[in-house]
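note to self: the first set is below, dont mix up w the second
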Amino acid sequence: MTTSTVAASEGRRGSDYARLSRRVAEAGLFERRPGRYAVRIALTLGAFLAGWAVVAAVGDSWWQLPLAAVMAVATTQVAFLGHDAGHRQMFRRRGPSEVAGLVAGNLAVGLSYGWWVEKHNRHHANPNHADEDPDVGAGALVWTYEQAQATRGLSRWLARRQAWLFFPMLLLEGLALHVASIRALAGRQPDGRWRVPVRHRAVEATLLAAHTSGYVGLLLAVMSPGKALLFAAVHQGLWGLYMGCAFAPNHKGMPMPTADDDLDYLRKQVLTARNVRGGRFVDLALGGLNHQIEHHLFPNLPRANLRRARPLVRAYCAEQGIPYAEAGLVESYRQGLAHLHDVGRPLRAG
């Protein structure tokens, strides 16, 4: 997709989002779902802790490898709870939200909650903007022709083949998130200031240390070093793959606005996002992120209300003449991979 798609969408501005927000509010969808979240938290954390109990009980066995795959799923589901906490979908107040996020992120998953919230908020403010959205900045993957042309050496080799390497590279995403968390908490600028603003740096560092020592200690206590290493490789690799597969369908292959595009909030969020069709199982598997348009329009909307908001948002976009993108899960991956392949085309031609 090109930015011409973005520029072509014109219409009434200013109050469009306010009218949609009133419709969602009148439907009662901004109301918190404490009962639903209490059940979700209990089941998710219960399954997570039960999984580790089984790991401890199985001991030094090759059955630990399929258990590592199961724990990758459980870890991702806990990470989804951290995502909800970061958007204050569970609680209105910051304090309880941060406690939930720190427990889910730092202690259970080993991911800095404060770093992730700061990064994720920048993504929500300017989705798919190459200069403002950290999720589409140049890195292991490139998202624009300009980023591709700037690559050198190994990065250029990867950019030529990135569509084919996308899923294998996601196996390293878990490790990358752990490293980024540590760098965010410990990294300083040359003048001594912290590189990343984190509200509870000492608490986060303590919880990350507790996660790491508990994770490594448990594995080495119940299995041989070789099996422990293989368990960690499978667990962390599949966790990264699952996380990447949950977030990839949402924006990849959608329009990428630039500073020249004059978009209001409603159009900025809708035009850059894609919903994934599916039933309740897809909701569970993707942590509600399959309702990406609704989530971006109303980030603090409880996860259970996103499906109910979908027909309201879709109908309103039709009234305003705003394209509302939906695709099946496989098709959403195809579109994202097609974009990655197209970005690398000039390098292959050269």
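second set (the one i keep forgetting abt)
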Amino acid sequence: MTAVAQDERVADPGRLRRLLIRPELGSVVGAIVVFAFFSGQSAVFRSVDGVANWLDPASTLGVMAVAIALLMIGGEFDLSAGVLTGTSGLVLVTLATRAGWNVWAAMLAGLVVALLVGFVNGLLVVRTRLPSFIVTLGTFLMLQGLNLGVTKALTGTVQVSGLRHAPGYDGARAVLAGSVTLGGTGFRVAILWWVAVTALATWVLTRTRAGNWVFAVGGNEQAARAVGVPAARVKIALFMTTAGAAWLVGSILALRFTSVQANAGIGQEFIYIIAAVIGGCLLTGGYGSPVGAAIGAVIFGMADKGIVFAGWDADWFKFFLGAMLLLATLANRLVRRYAEEVRR
């Protein structure tokens, strides 16, 4: 009897191949290597207290990295995400300390402002067809000037402080910026928010029609439009998602430190993109993983604190980030090529 060739659309590529084409594979391997390396350099690093220490910076970065990953999978960038965390924090602290608002109401106002910025970014990108790099760079510069100008006009300095005495502060801090004790070690609540955001983003991207739309728009926008995908709405929603994440991070940091500098968040947008790329996102869109971006944030947190625990000069951290970015980009390119070969 003659064997019938199996249709390639239903052919099983095998478990190993499915694993090898996962976008987060490189970040998982990288995280294991980085953990093993710094564990050998410092016993504190691998202790429970050490883990709590490096998960702290990873958590706030991770929230933003996951949102940026979704946007990059959709084929766009947001260079205003970093400074928008500062804007959200400034709105919160200014309204709570200068206008006497309850902290929860001030946080809601900050969310409205952030979502408005995200909506305008997305609308400009889809209506003008300008590269999101240019649009969000303009937003970045405007927000930077606005943060500094308004803060100086209201306070005479470049900082707004005094949030600790505002009504509703204790409750808001407990929910967003407090700590929980596990086994005698304090872990920041922000870690739970990070896990929740990652889980929600993964579910949306892999289990819903909206997630399919994100991949389709990032892979080939014209083809996606041709089959009925609402590309404009998808992109605007992605920019608003990034803005919402910026609000969450800005609020967490403001509640934690009870003050906000006018230049808060500037430069962080590149760290978010680096974490997303380390996590498997391609700069060309259509490929990536929220889980990978979260693991990229873990690598950042481990390197940030591991260098300190090892007693090295902190200047090596930037070198490490640059090296990880190059290695991750090369690894993602190889994985992408392999994935394309598997599908043929």
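remember for set 2: The two ends are 27 Å apart (CA to CA).
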